[in-house]
Structures are given as C-alpha cells and as structure tokens.
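Q: What structure does this chain adopt?
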Amino acid sequence: MNTEVPTLSFGEPEPEAPVAVQEAPKPQVAAPKDEDILTEAERRQVEALAKQINLQDTNGILQYGAGTQKKMSEFSDAALATVKTRDLGEVGDMLSGVINNLEQFDPNEKEESGFFGLFKKPKKKMDEIKVQYDKANVNVEKVAKALQEHQVILMKDIATLDKMYASNLVYYKELTMYILAGKKAIENVKNGKLQEMRTRAEASGLSEDAQAVRDLEDQINRFEKKLHDLELTRMIAIQTAPQIRLIQSSDTMMVEKIQSTIVNTIPLWKNQMVLALGIEDSTKAAKA
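A:
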C-alpha cells in the first residue's frame, strides 16, 4: 500500500503556491419581458390596439383598461367574500374533538383493587364498556357526519379557487396587454407626431403651433399616468396569485386531515373496540 512520506529539502526554493483560477462570471439571465408571456395572436392584438389609441380622445383615455380594472375590483370582492365565509378553526376543533372522544374511552382501564374492587363483577364491567362505547360512538358518528359536510364544502372551495386563479391570470394578461399597447402608442407619438409638431413650431414661430406641442405633451403625460394606474392594478393581480394558492393549500391539507380521520382513525378505533369487547367475552366465557 502506497503511503505518503515526508520529504525534506535544503536550500531549494519553496514550491510556488498554485495560482487561483478565477471563474468566468456567469452570464446574467435577463428578466423576462412582458411580451414573453403573450402568444403571437395576443401580440398582434397589442399592435392593433396601439394603432387605435388616440391621445386626443379624452374619454377614450379615461376609459382605457377600465373594464379590466372593474373586473379586478369585482374579483377582489369575490375573493374577500370567500375568505369571510370560511371557518377552518371550527373544523380543526371538530377534528380535535373526535380524537379526544376516542382517547377518553379506554376499555382496558384497570379495575379498582381492594375492597371496592370486590363489587366490580365481570357482567357489570361488560355492561359499562358497552354503554361507554355506545355513547362515544354516537358522538363520533355525529362529528364524522359534520366533518363530511365540511369536506364537501372545502372541496367546492378548492375548485372555486382554481377558477379564481385562472381568472386572475386572465386579468393579469389583459392588463399587461393594455400597458404594452399604451407604451407602444406613446413611443409612436413621441417619435412621430410630436417630433413633427415641434419641428413645425420651431420653423413657424407661431404661438398656436407651440401650444399644440404643449397640449400633446400634456396628453402624453396624462396617458402615462393612466398606464401607471394600470400597472398598480396589475401588481394586485401579481400579489393575489400566491395568496390564492396559499388558501387553496390550507383547504387541501384540511381535506386530507378530514379524510384520514374518517377513513383511518375512526374505523381503526371501532376495530379496537370490537376486539376489546370480543376479548372481554372470551375472558368471561373462559372463567365460566
């Protein structure tokens, strides 16, 4: 077996330290552009809308994208209403109640010893176990039925949240298309009509031409503010998407807990009760 051995030297230069090799900087991945989320058909819609925008149409500018903003507002109201009607705390309490009911009933509880234990007859103990089981079973069945009803409601909520997520995505895309079309329209006006009007105003020196330039600049500024307002609305859509998924995840986890309680915990408890009663009967028969 080869082992590393020490090496000694005298008067020889120390070995040069290895030169650290600098890694080439990793190319930065450019952030995706708004156009990247659009299909070719949607991009053509943006181009067509950009050509239709008339900055001198005051009413048209005021109503630009307002329909989608209204739908977003109604969507937010619907989402708030959905959250308000939910009460997962009650479902959690019911689940805890089921577990407590099951844990409180112990058919294998030890008999009392001493003087009072003499009065604990086998038949009396069997009757007590059956009474306790019947009482616990009634409570468990009642809660299980209520849990099943909550499970149905939660599953409907999950489906509704899926639809809400899809609608939110549509609104986000619509707002993005309005913003892109608006920016293209502004760019076209700045590079085209505005430049022509400035050139004409400088050449003519007329006050009305200069005023026309100022009017168009004001119209551009107002439209830019409108686009900023649309961007704020789009930010709401961006923030809403993960919130919907978070609520949906909580609902899904609760449905899974309910299902596990109904199909696993309760049947297992019943099986244990049947075994306990059977063992008690067998013990009684053996002592007879």
